[in-house]
Amino acid sequence: MQVADVSSNFLGFDYAEFYVGSAAAWEYLHWKAFGFRPVAYSGPETGRKDSVSYVMQQGTMRLVLTASLSEDSEISRHVSRHGDGVKDVAMTVTDVDKVAKTLASNGAILVSHPKEEKDDSGYLRRAVIGGYGDTVHSLIDRSQYRGTFRPGYEPLHEDASPVGFVKIDHVVGNVEEGKMDHWVNYYSKSFGFKQLMSFDDKDISTEYSALRSKVVHDGKRRVVMPINEPAKGRKKSQIEEFLDYYRSPGVQHIAIRTENIIKAVSDMRSRGVVFLDTPDSYYEKLSERVGGIDEPIEELRKHRILVDRDDAGYMLQIFTKPVGDRPTFFYEIIERKGGESFGKGNFKALFESIEREQAKRGNL
Ligand code: FE2
After folding, report:
1. Separation of 332 CA from ligand 1 center, angstroms?
2. Do 226 and 215 contact (CB within 8 A), yes or no?
3. 20-32 pLDDT, tens per residue?
4. Predicted local confidence at residue 206, as pLDDT
5. Which of 21, 53, 105, 307 has the most beta carbons within 10 angstroms of its beta carbon?
6. Count of Cβ atoms closer than 10 Å to residue 200 Cβ
7. 3-class SS at 235?
8. Per-residue pLDDT averaged across 189-216, rounded?
9. Average pLDDT over residues 232-259
10. Alpha-carbon distances, residue 30 vs 63, 169, 204, 319 (angstroms)
11. In the predicted model, is pLDDT for residue 118 greater than 80?
């Protein structure tokens, strides 16, 4: 049977919703350190008795930070099992009824049929589809809605000092060993998503990074989702560690696009955001590896920003330390100068620079 391709109905990421222990603490962190503006709130004051949510925005990127007010709820059970983490990777779509129906008939897990949400600012329609682990995808058609976020939320009017975030670049999921292809097929078959590129065991980076990764997207790179699984490497895979602490597959990181990564990282560092460190030796071989770039190497070294080049150009990236208590979720900050990759070359470069340091100490 010929099934309809609805991939062109996907317009982009709508928001990412976190289930956390304290929404107020996460709001403060994202507001003061990451420069998001609190734009909407829902809780007892707005008629919602059992939970609170803050909506944060910077550029077109939206986060929803949700915590439970009761001891036994879906939210508190999620936080108890997984720690603070991403529950919902929501996507904006056109014609949610058609998309949900098509996805379900293509084998997607239908968590919730399309429902209307309505207030004085119009209405929106939302369906919920299952993803890896306990992660879900809200599909939202907001073409008939003029309000700030969703019915049930009140607008907030706070100032913020943005650091220059533009949008979500990609959202990465970690799944169990041997399950990557299952989930790539899931998004390909039911969402109609395309595979962007793949690298497998033979890939040179695997030996160092101990992970395999494939990328699915809507066809226009508006919704881009790499999916990782652990691979046998020299050391315990970082993906295995994530799975141990998150207790299931889930979102490993959200990459945030900026147009000036040096300024963004400098601003965040001055506000106390902590990033993964990079050995000095990484920068000694950088020009040799990536060729000419606009940014002074000294600036990149100062802020520990990484660079990777592909056929289309280059990209700059850096990773934060885990945001919550468990070694699970973190952010990536990314600036693309034509480069379309996800930083694969940096796995190897980083590992090699660590080995150079080891060799200097006579330990290799
Ligand atoms: Fe990434």
Report:
1. 6
2. yes
3. 999 999 999 999 9
4. 54
5. 307
6. 11
7. coil
8. 75
9. 91
10. 9, 18, 37, 16
11. yes
Domains detected in the chain: 7-155 (3.10.180.10), 165-361 (3.10.180.10)
For residue 261, report the distance from its CA to the centre of ligand 1, in Å.
Answer: 15
What is the CA(45)–ligand 1 centre distance, in A? 37
Q: Which residues surround ligand 1, an ion (CB under 5 A)?
A: 255, 332, 342
pLDDT value for 205: 54
- How remote is the CA of residue 112 from the centroid of ligand 1, in Å? 29
Distances in Å between the Cα of 22 and the Cα atoms of 83, 84, 97, 192, 301 are: 11, 9, 34, 36, 35
Q: Which of these, 60, 66, 61, 63, lies nearest to 25 by C-alpha position?
A: 66
Decide if pLDDT at 238 tops 50: yes
Residue 6 CA, ligand 1 centroid: distance in Å: 26
| Integer CA distances (angstroms), 238 to 85, 203, 228, 243, 263, in order | 17, 17, 10, 9, 29
Residue 345's alpha-carbon distances to 89, 174, 292, 296, 352, in angstroms, are: 27, 19, 16, 20, 11
pLDDT at residue 199 is higher than 80: no
172 Cα–ligand 1 center, Å: 6
Rounded Cα gap, residues 218 and 341, in angstroms: 16
Cα dihedral value 76, 81, 86, 92, nearest 10: -70
Cα(334) to centroid of ligand 1, in Å?
8
Q: How close is the Cα of 254 to the center of ligand 1, in Å?
A: 7
The Å distance, Cα 173 to ligand 1 centre, comes to: 10
Q: What is the pLDDT of residues 148-164, one digit of tens each?
A: 999 999 999 999 999 99
